[in-house]
Amino acid sequence: MQLIATVIFACIAVVCLCNVASADLHHIKQMNDFLAFANDVANDKATYDVVLDTDLDFSSTTFPVPVGVDSQYECHFYSRDFNGQGHTIKNLKMKSSTYGDAALFCGLNDYSVKNLVIDKSCEFSGSIAGGLAVMANNPDIGNVTVNAQVTGEVLAGGFIGAISATIEAKNPITNINKCQNNAIIKVTSGLNSCAGGFIGSIKCNSPTGYCSLNMEHNSGDVNVQCLSPETILGGVVGAVEDSKNIFVNLNGNTLSVTSHSAKCETLTSGGAIGIFEKSPGFSLKMQGNVFYQSDKSD
């Protein structure tokens, strides 16, 4: 009898655990589900992971600001896992004059975005613009494809506009692995504005430890353009600046990077990283990468 009671109690415990887990997982099956999710993020109520069960076509839906922007135009970072299950975001065209910045998310913090496609029909245009997020701290991004057009006035990144990890985490790490990048990235203002194939700019000052960018086995055909003078371009990152003890690991990436610099009177156009400055302790490790870089004067 004691054994039977123990087994029954164990089964009840498992059932309870399963119920708790399911409560923390939301499925997006249609556009209204996504809009409700965006509203939850903007109101700090999205304390759950998300699974996308369908493609989302915004051709008939107005979505003027990134996920996480509230009615006062303040950004609330999404801090849970988002699994796109290979589904595609289509026809999302965002020129955010009211908020200022543009991307699918205004901010990603910790946790992961996986298995998502941002279609070439998507366009993001703002002061800071990214195909996936305007800002990010400690994101873990895997198997994400960005084919969108991304235009930033000050910063533009195919995936993330800016990483600014002045946070309390001991060793902030950004992971971007097994992703496909075919984005067209443009930066318009000049005056030391930055565009990067994946990330526009990194500013990471973590006094308690090292900041790390880890990128492995990514591929794609990246197109980076400047439309005015004094612009910084990089095939992976536009600029690493004002960062302390930052370690960048690029391993097994195969990228074709085309930069268009004819309209740039003063241009730093690096292969992987456009420029790094005011960054003591900067370390770059590159192994097994293949970069095809060309510059067009159109």
Characteristics of this structure?
single chain, about 300 residues, mainly beta, Pectate Lyase C-like, 21-stranded parallel β-sheet, six-stranded parallel β-sheet, 2 helices, 27 strands, disordered N terminus
Question: What does this molecule look like?
Answer:
The relative contact order is 0.09. The chain is mainly beta. It is globular and about 45 Å long. The protein is built from two helices and 27 strands. The chain is 11% helix and 49% strand. The chain has a single domain (55-296), classed as 3 Solenoid (Pectate Lyase C-like), CATH 2.160.20. Strand 1, helix 2 (31-42) and strand 2 (49-52) form a beta-alpha-beta unit. The longest helix has 22 residues, at 2-23. The protein has a 21-stranded parallel beta sheet that branches. It has a six-stranded parallel beta sheet with strand order 6-9-12-17-21-25, with no helix packed on it. It starts with a helix and ends with a strand. It has helices spanning 2-23, 31-42; strands at 25-28, 49-52, 56-57, 82-90, 93-95, 105-109, 112-118, 123-130, 133-137, 140-146, 149-157, 160-164, 173-177, 180-181, 184-187, 193-196, 199-203, 211-216, 219-226, 231-234, 237-241, 246-251, 254-260, 267-270, 273-277, 283-287, 290-296.
